[in-house]
Amino acid sequence: MRAPLRRFGNSQGIIIPKGVLSLLRISGEVEMEVVDQHIELRPVAGRRVGWAEAFEALPPEALAMTEEDEAFLSFDLSE
Q: Among candidates 12, 17, 46, which has minimal Cα distance to 29?
């Protein structure tokens, strides 16, 4: 895909199609980095950063199911 450079004040930029932004889940702002003569754009890390590590750090007893959990999961909606 080619995109023309456009003037924005004293800068230049490109217009990224809405479909591309949606596909990449980019909105608001991006992280931009020049790598090997290319520009990389990445979504800004959201509030969920570090959740996987926090989950891994939980003690096993924090993940144990209670009787209430078991009852909830066994509830039959068809009745």
A: 46
> What does the pLDDT look like over 15-31, one tens digit per residue?
999 998 888 888 888 88
Is residue 24 within 8 A of residue 43, CB to CB? The reply is: yes
Q: Report, in this order, helix, strand and coil percent for the chain, each rounded to 5.
A: 30, 25, 45
Helix (H, G, I), strand (E, B) or coil at 9: coil
Element (H, E) at 30: strand 30-35
**In sequence order, what are the beta bridge partners of 30?**
43
Instruction: State the fold for domain 6-73.
Output: Pemi-like Protein 1; Chain: D (2.10.260)
* Entry pTM: 0.48
Distance CA 41, CA 32 (A): 5
